[in-house]
Amino acid sequence: MADSSNAAKPARSRSRGIRPTGRRRKAPTRRRRVLTIAGCTLAGCVLVGGAGLGYVYFSLNGNLKGVDINAALGDDRPENIDNGSMDILVMGSDSRAGQNSAYGADEGGARSDTAMVVHVYEGHKRASVVSIPRDTLIERPDCTKDGKPVPGQRRAMFNTAFEVGGPACAVKTVESMSGIRMDHFVEVDFTGFKKLIDALGGVDITTTKPINDKDSHLHLPAGAHTLNGEQALGLVRTRHGVPGGDGSDLGRIQLQQTFLKALMDQVRGIGLMSNPARLYGIADTATKAITTDTDLNSVTGLMGLAKSLGGIGSRNIHMVTLPVAYDPADPNRVLPLQKQTGQVWDALRQDKDIPASAVKDSAGDKGGTSGYVK
User: Fold this and answer.
1) Rg of the chain (C-alpha set)
2) For residues 216 and 250, is the Cβ–Cβ distance under 8 A?
3) Secondary structure (H, E, C), the chain
4) What are phi and psi of 246, to 5 degrees?
5) If 0-12 CB within 10 Å is exposed, 13-18 middle and 19+ buried, where does residue 59 land?
6) Could you read off the pLDDT of 278-294 as tens digits, one per residue?
7) CATH number of 26-200+239-358
8) For the chain: N or C, fewer Cβ within 10 A?
9) What is the pLDDT of residue 265?
10) Neighbouring residues of 365: CB distance < 8 A, sequence distance ≥ 6
11) In which region does residue 208 sit, left (phi positive, over 0), alpha (psi from -120 to 50) or beta (all else)?
């Protein structure tokens, strides 16, 4: 990974292969708006599909991987309330298998390094995003994987649901916690995330303080940067290298939320329609990077979702972290604040704004990294 800490270089740090221009990119246009990771991976699919290129359509279709969540969970789910809203579980997988082995030994299962419930309000003009800390202790429900039962567990870390039961168990766990039926599921893994950022040409951010994290291999001085895929992955994974941060997953989540908004703006402003070759490359990378539920497991399905979410921009998204407190028995774990989490889920279930009182006394938005990345 590139190290941009050389003080003799200009304040802007650029990754290899990204040509410096001396200027920042133009402000993003309002024509294409996308929603967090899901929207970023879908944007190329929408544009290519609209071009009517039959070969490209079938090529991209062949890239997609789907999981039949409905068949796996059956009728044991919250009621499907048709009020015009939509709920999507977006997960980042930290599997160490295959090309992801550079991030540690493969211990036989992937965990959800990142988990976000994306609630799209009626009219699809705005959204709320609730990040669930991976270290949250929850009561994991009974699940099945490959036809075999997976017993539930009390005081289980949230991210073990994905590890022991795969996407269907992760969805069931979130539905059990929230009482909200997930309409869709989208997963992005380490390698896919890096390749997507590189295909986009990097993402512009500004750090207000230096970040140096030997664990995520990220070294950034204070200043403006265009992050390549490796650096972007380091940023959304870093916990220990941010001055003033508490070294927890909560601080990492704050960085993830800021980065995702920057990523959304980047996708909207790169002018893909004027460059068909780059357009196809991004669409090809995006469709290889994700796993979805079977309702989205086609270019047509992704096009429909992206069109539905086309009116949402980063300024129309409210991001919070699930209200939690540090576990008195283990400061490396957090516990949901029952009253406040109830407020969050009740608001989304009723398609209402999350009240400020829900996160007022939560440790979730006090990870110490707020304002360090713009």
Assistant:
1) 20
2) no
3) CCCCCCCCCCCCEECCCCCCCCCCCCCCCCCCCCCHHHHHHHHHHHHHHHCCCHHHHHHHHHHCEEECHHHHHCCCCCCCCCCCCEEEEEEEECCCCHHHHHHCCCCCCCCEEEEEEEEECCCCCCEEEEECCCCEEEEECCEEECCEEECCEEEEECCHHHHHHHHHHHHHHHHHHHCCCCCEEEEEEHHHHHHHHHHCCCEEEEECCCEEECCCCEEECCEEEEECHHHHHHHHHCCCCCCCCCCCHHHHHHHHHHHHHHHHHHHHCCCHHHCHHHHHHHHHHHHHHEEEEHHHCCHHHHHHHHHHCCCCCHHHEEEEECCEEEECCEEEEEEECHHHHHHHHHHHHCCCCCCHHHCCCCCCCCCCCCCCEC
4) -90, 5
5) middle
6) 777 888 888 898 999 99
7) 3.40.630.190
8) C
9) 79
10) 250, 254, 320, 321, 359
11) alpha
Measured CA to CA, the distance from residue 121 to residue 353 in angstroms comes to 9
Structure token pair of residue 78: 């919250």
Q: Domain spans of the chain? A: 26-200+239-358
Quick one: pLDDT at residue 238? 81
**Whole-prediction pTM value?**
0.81
Which positions of the chain have pLDDT values less than 70?
Answer: 1-57, 94-112, 240-248, 268-275, 366-371
CB-based burial, 65-101: b 16+ in 10 Å, e otherwise: ebbebeebbeeebeeeeeeebbbbbbbbbbbbeeebe
Report pLDDT for 249: 76
Tokens of 323: 């209200």
